[in-house]
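Table S7 (text form). Paired inputs.
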Amino acid sequence: MTDSVFTPTRTETDSIGSLEIPAAAYWGVHTARAMENFPIARRPVSVYPDFVRAFACVKQAAARANLEIGALDEQRANLIDAACEEIKGGRLHDEFTVGVIQGGAGTSTNMNANEVITNRALEIGGHAKGDYSFINPNDHTNHSQSTNDTYPTAIKIALAFSLQNLLGELTLLADAFAAKGREFSHIIKVGRTQLQDAVPMTLGQEFNAFATTLREDVQRLEEAVALLGEVNMGATAIGTAINAPVGYKEAVIKHLRTITGLELVSAGDLVESTSDTGVFITFSGALKRSALKMSKIANDLRLLSSGPQAGFGEINLPARQAGSSIMPGKVNPVIPEAVSQVAYSVAGADVTVSMAVEAGQLQLNAFEPIIAHSLFQSITWLERACQTFRVNCVNGITANEAALEDTVARSVTVITALAPVIGYAPAAQLAKQALATNEPIADLVVAQGLLDPAQLEEILKPERLTGLPADHGVENTTEGAEAVPRDEMTSELPVVSSTE
């Protein structure tokens, strides 16, 4: 028989009744009830550290604004400010324990933030946790605020923070493809349309196209994040600014811009802004676009590397793990497969966001928690997918030059370059004959006297077939930003945090 361990507690009370809270906990009664009510995802909001940081930014800005307009005394405001600063720096994130899926339009998360900030502020000031007579989660930390303006504002700030890491990884991935474009710029291959042989190109051109399409998505995501700059701080419950003192709205936006470094502006119509979540559809759509284009690239790499004997076999992907428990020596394209699965999840999350945005009623959308979870998960998974795609796949790709050279030599695709000279109908006949006899097109053209060897050589020069000079290298026009992964990802890389 073992002795039970006694855990010291403190008693906290809300409008429903009293609960015993672990004495060491920084969260309080509202958070405790939320943990009881929403044991659904088994994932606390702390799995998204940028969301926690964003909430700390919002509460810090509110404390400074309330101090500036005289709505909060200097001692309490400074203690709240100091607690927020610590949370921005990464402290106490494990105290943000409410589940990512919750009812109440985010009230549980807002109260979790209020309680943690309040109890840390009390501790800094030499008071006991739970001494809410001195600093109260509602009356002081949440002063001039409502969940309905702090929660969506924190989502937007957190998305802007998180997106910087994703953009960095996307840029690095584009750079990796561009580097392969330069490496493969001299290798001629057969281009394909509808999975059928089309015309010659270089392997470098193919990889450069991958780089270009990813860079386009960096631009699209940058455009989408600009839309997140309009926030509704000061709107309070439904946009009428009830309980927000005169001057608070202007002051809180000013401080929030300074704290986050973001170009934030106050919404022109706070009632509309409080009820409208349409910006999240736009942002989600940009994430989906990027994810699906990455999946298309992943699928192309799987096709190009298929084999090694009975497939395309044009490139080799790095062998990452044994591919079968029954087939010895089999190696599968596991990294591209994982990337595509992330894309499917992002596409599904986009549907979830769309449905949640549509479901908002009257002056508030109660479903912002699932919007936030869907978007944060999509960004996190996309960033991780970009990194593993680059490090564990793209950087190690090699070309099967001998196989590609043989394929091009026997390919009838060069007939397209000859058609303007010898005519479409003769060219089509030659293509059929080459396919039937497996003879090179060049040999047939010369044998039939359609062109002499010198003419043929001039027409079939690699630069004429591909539209590029023979020594052309793919330019890497964009310098890759240093990508920084999520806290839960690669520990050896630092994490970007907002700075004043």
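Next pair, protein 2 of 2.
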Amino acid sequence: MIIEFRCEREHARRWMHRETLSVDGRDVPVQIAWTATAESRPAGLDALFALERMVLHKGKPGGADGLKIIPKRTQARTGTADVIVDFTGGARDRDCSASLYLRPLFNGTAGENAALAAILAGDMPVIDIVNEIDGAVLDRGHPSGETAAGLSGALETVMARTLTMVAAILSGRPRILPQLSRPAGAMNRRGPVGYVVRGLVVSIAKEIYRLCCYAPHWHIGWRFNDGAGVWQTGDLSGPRWNVLGDPGNHFYADPFPVTWRGRTFVFFEDLDHRVGKGIISAIEFGDTGPVRDVMPVLEEPWHLSYPFLIEDDGELWMIPESSINGDVALYKCVRFPDQWERHATLLSGLELADATITRHNGLNYLFGAWRDGAGGYSDSLAIYYADHLLGPWLPHASNPVLIDRASTRPAGNFVTINERLWRPVQNCADGYGAALALAEVIELSPTTFKQIVRHSLKPGPAWPGRKLHTLNRCGRLEVIDGSRVQPKTSAFARQFPSPALPPRTRPSTAS
């Protein structure tokens, strides 16, 4: 197979300059056909990108940067292209003999200007990949902007996820088209200069914030609930949420409660701001709340978070998020709650965040937020399935089964209510971890997947704060998490806590 990218010569960017595209681990040859400019770009765009590179990206080059040597003519071709991917806004070449002519659309319009217009209007565009030969939409996705800094970073992210979708189509795997509404806001479009200036101001404000405060600072909410919980009400109402006390220079996130051999513990990510690496810690809960101190239970040389727990074959297992290490590892509890041994590697050679398992119709399904080395970390859902917890784990026929920043990333345990399967998901439309959604899984098999978001949960009167990104329950105990402003001076004050309660277990109300 030979792929041909059609790109505008006068707006050649670094992301276009490639010789191959990875398709299912194979490097497929890519040739570039440089075409005439179909539409002019906003004046001064390259200068603004250069400014962003110096200020926002610390001088590091990015995919949106212009090529230093602009090609003057069409790149030498290695052969007749089997697939055309046309990134321009120009008309299709009707004389081309390629069997597949792909055209990325950004909020329904072709070309880089359409992607820029969506970003300037305040949001990432919905991406459609259309086969222009028959007009069929072959894939659809909505990328996450969590790692995108400035206009150039947002454009790079959009194009990176576009290539993810093109590679998925070319793999031959069946695609599952989600129903995604295009973002509103075209009337609020800002000019490039205004957008970049605002981005620089926000960046400076964030740096000042980081100098004064620990950022982000997550905290865990808990409550005992004898009545209908979040899954039944679809909101955070009910008994008052309490906050698990922390020492100030640590944050706690991703709570997973479990009752094992008569004792209830909440396991969670414990990150020391001074080190910048997470470990897994736990705290015991009694009839009235947390008891004793927080204890570390698992640490590796790499960052750990999201300690998903599962009981299988009479044993308790943990799958902590370790995507930075490039694998999904299974740990066995050899002494509850504080001794865990690495038992097996379920998946390797991939970035898969927040692995979460459910058993459905006789099979185990593992969900995770997958990243192919570019773009955001929360917009692409991969599913694997196996007969047994230890595997072997096989990929879903349509991986990635969903690209949507608002309903992809796992946010806690699956729940079955009245024989209906549900999953909490992170809604990252307004940034990483900004809100939760409750999605009903309508179809799930090794070849199918469909979910419908039924409820959205955001911080508010019941849970004041800035974010919300995990939900779990064990018996009467419900747990969530969120973030708050944590001045660095508070960490010093907490070195001298009141002797009334241990500093890491003192409960407080949500604030």
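Residues 350 and 441 are 25 Å apart (CA to CA).
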